Amino acid sequence: MIRAFIVGAGLLLAAASGFARADAPPAPPEPAPPSAAAPAAPKSWSSMSPQQQQLLHNYQGKWDSLPPERQQALVKGSQRWLSMTPEQKSGAQQRFNQWRAMPPEQRQVLRQRWQQYKSLPPEQQQRVRESFGRFRQMPPARRMELRKQWRQMSPEQRRRSVQRPAPPPRRSPR
Predict the structure, then answer these.
(1) Does the pTM of the predicted model rise above 0.85?
(2) Does the residue 26 lie in any domain?
(3) pLDDT of residue 30
(4) Contacts from 9-16 at CB under 8 Å and sequence distance 24+?
């Protein structure tokens, strides 16, 4: 299994589940190269719901000057934010605050890991998500143990561990 992504993907998958704050939607992902997709059609300010307009009020004066891809990302983020439960919003706010508190270098590392993850074939992405899910189900002491083992590995040991299948989950004593 691709265990190299488990630790890094953890934060990234948490981040992907919704960086947001109450007064602004999440920043959009890096736009795709122009050849990768058709250009997004601009969205007019008046075509958004009043709730979206309120959420995006900081962009009102400059909306028409934003690139269509940015507009689409903001609209999508605002729709997502408005559909969240209060608990989801609270979690997203907490993750956003964690992101903002990170040094720029750490954010860059996480962006690179996210791009690596996104470049994986869908079936490998699914395996990473499943592995991360199993990791999250582990007791905190076991997760700390695995993190410690990972940090102590050399780059070569990490590469080898990524290439071999993951061990079956350990059963906790009953």
Answers:
(1) no
(2) no
(3) 43
(4) 9/113, 9/117, 9/128, 9/129, 9/132, 10/132, 10/135, 10/136, 11/110, 12/110, 12/113, 12/114, 12/117, 13/129, 13/132, 14/95, 15/95, 15/99, 15/110, 15/114, 16/114
